[in-house]
UniProtKB/TrEMBL annotation, chains A, B:
InterPro entries: Bact_exopeptidase_dim_dom, Cyt/Met_Dipeptidase, Peptidase_M20, Peptidase_M20_dimer. It comes from the Bacteria. This is Dipeptidase. The keyword Hydrolase applies. PANTHER family: BETA-ALA-HIS DIPEPTIDASE, SUCCINYL-DIAMINOPIMELATE DESUCCINYLASE. It comes from Virgibacillus halodenitrificans (Bacillus halodenitrificans). The keyword Hydrolase applies. SUPFAM superfamilies: Bacterial exopeptidase dimerisation domain, Zn-dependent exopeptidases.
Amino acid sequence: MSEKTLAYLQEKRSSLLDKLNEFLSIPSVSTSKEHKEDIHKAADFIVNYLNEIGFDKVEKQQTKGHPLVYAEYNEAGPEAPTVLFYGHYDVQPVDPVELWESDPFQPEIRDGRLYARGSSDDKGQVFMHLAVFEAYMRTEGKLPLNVKVCIEGEEEIGSENLYEILQEKKEMFQADFAVISDSGMIAKNQPTILYGLKGFTGIEINVTGPDHDLHSGMYGGAIRNPLMALSHILASMKNQDEVVTVDGFYNDVEPLSGHERKLIDQVHGEDYTISTGVKETVSEKGYTAKEHTMARPTLEINGMFGGYQGEGTKTIIPSSATAKITCRLVPGQDPVKIQQLLEEHINKVAPTGVNVEVKKEKLSAKAYKVEPEHALIQKAAASYSKAFGKDTVYVRMGGSIPVVEWIEDIYNIPIVLLGFGTPDDRLHSPNESFPMDSFEKGMETLVYYWNEVIK
Amino acid sequence: MSEKTLAYLQEKRSSLLDKLNEFLSIPSVSTSKEHKEDIHKAADFIVNYLNEIGFDKVEKQQTKGHPLVYAEYNEAGPEAPTVLFYGHYDVQPVDPVELWESDPFQPEIRDGRLYARGSSDDKGQVFMHLAVFEAYMRTEGKLPLNVKVCIEGEEEIGSENLYEILQEKKEMFQADFAVISDSGMIAKNQPTILYGLKGFTGIEINVTGPDHDLHSGMYGGAIRNPLMALSHILASMKNQDEVVTVDGFYNDVEPLSGHERKLIDQVHGEDYTISTGVKETVSEKGYTAKEHTMARPTLEINGMFGGYQGEGTKTIIPSSATAKITCRLVPGQDPVKIQQLLEEHINKVAPTGVNVEVKKEKLSAKAYKVEPEHALIQKAAASYSKAFGKDTVYVRMGGSIPVVEWIEDIYNIPIVLLGFGTPDDRLHSPNESFPMDSFEKGMETLVYYWNEVIK
């Protein structure tokens, strides 16, 4: 049954790639208002594609922010299971654009990789699902199971409206299980089941001092420098052993069992010094870098700015300083409680002479974990292995997908994370790419999986 | 003799103001290449004005950077002293331009102040000198003393080429004493003799980590965050008691005598909480804010940046982080030695896992002090008091004027700092302004001073 479908994907390789490139060429950056039209263009692309494929009901749903594409396929019959397929069509900003070797919105294949913003995260992976649906419809005249499609345009800005929509339209999105392809494998062509994700929370710290930038000669010595005050605050939050020094931060962390530390040790992941160019890795005292990235919480400064940033010197005491911080959380930790602990710590250490404000980001998610033994997980692993010709490994990862927490929270259904990205994809960075191998073997995995699931 | 000259300045008030506004309207920002033409326009304005006034020799001298205006007036005869008048026609950048209440390059008078970039620092004060020269020539047919004019276009970028020029053309710039009006009074209409200036030195710290921005979920826990590393470095350089914690920083500082602490205590300077909007001042442990600003060294972060600075959240570990630091130095401290101490400290505390580079700024100056009892200083104080109707006070200030150190170093002549700015001028900030009172009484002071000097 799947042979014809696989053959179709082979035959149509070139026209499918053209279609994917058309999708990737739309600069659907969600963080910036200037791309509003492109966001709609990307949503319309999916709507048109799903209509062409022959879905029963296809809608561009308006939200308070960017539109969500919803679709249903119900012809597999009442006996067949229903899958909720989630993905996102929005992408990260491209800055600094000068570091891209080719235009981020003019896809280009180099050395077996397709370079474009969104090629891996997540337009490329969404497209694989659509192509597989097309292949099934054109060869079998139907899909093996019922499908609900939910492709949003706000993932990169924290899926601001999705939770409310999923809650309000609970009936509409109800399914037997969910599949998400917005993650990766631990190495190229290494089938990987992701059974745990970290949670997420964030704050912004704003330090304000004088009401205007001051001449450092005239005022230096009388005025607290907001950048120095902020540096003191930040340095007090994590020490050089990479241990977060905020009171209570680790209180609710589920301890890492000896068994799981062994499992983690067995994963042969990427060599960070090669993939990131650092001379040496660091990690929380008492834990390896693999343990820390997969299963221990982290705190990172994502951005910081204040004062003069141009050419040359400007001898000022700046009037303000800002830092953006996010934490990745593990099972047991509550994002809202962590925000509260961060705020309390900051207020406690804030120096005199400046005003320190903590803005709590709305975006947050609890960590997620599923049992690797679940049948839907085992079938996914088998499909993966068949397509890639290699045993599947089971890992936890540090990435956060808020929608995973929400689907679990609202629907309490199993969630299968079928990711095909690789460590070299440079998500969120210049020169994002996706291996052509992942496209082909990934689609093969999906063809097998839909067949397995109905057995 | 000075009455006619003073009357001329009164009569021509309106046309002189028009002329000043024309000068201030030229955006002669020296830090940025895009204003190269404006820099030349400002230099040409001065050249034309000096020619109109009737100087004997007027030249726009090319340098490796922005041009320098040189002029001579030699008609006062061999018995009369020769003054070297130094000023600068370049200005600071105007960013953030949205905070200006009127266009920085369309001068506007509001509440007795002239608002424009450069109105105080230093185009406005340079113009006062030119107007007084004009007034003398039009009323007396000559100037009371011989004059050499040196008005540069690179003060705000560290007077990069001036030292070399002053050294190479030693004969040309040789004079009996120097006058500089690029500073201020401690309060509006409070005649102030500035007998000491701080020195200056600067560094830039560049911390680089991964070779591209990383996804904080995938890499958080294995990679040292350059912004956190930089925060640790910066926090280690000054504690919350405002004491610089760099080994050896205070070693060569001349101790502050009890007598001088008393003099400083008697100065009734600005109320920093009013002029800067801070709730409370801070200062080095063991010293008052006045003592710290006037006579103790300082270390300030002038600017800092790294990672994502746009709207919303971007969950990255940034690939780099930068901080710009300058120190204000007091007599005894050597700028180059201080740079060396800063670099050694930074290398000592730099965390593993990142690369830390210290770039030493070329711009630097030793602190300067002159005896308040010198005759040229006493005559200046008398002229000030006569014009403003108030006793002159003697202060040291935290600002640095590298040219002061160089003139002393190369020519070893007395330097008189005749500044007319006020604490509310917002130098280097949005809404820079200069009191109209300072223009009028300042020009009066100069008319008296040139008369006094020849006695």
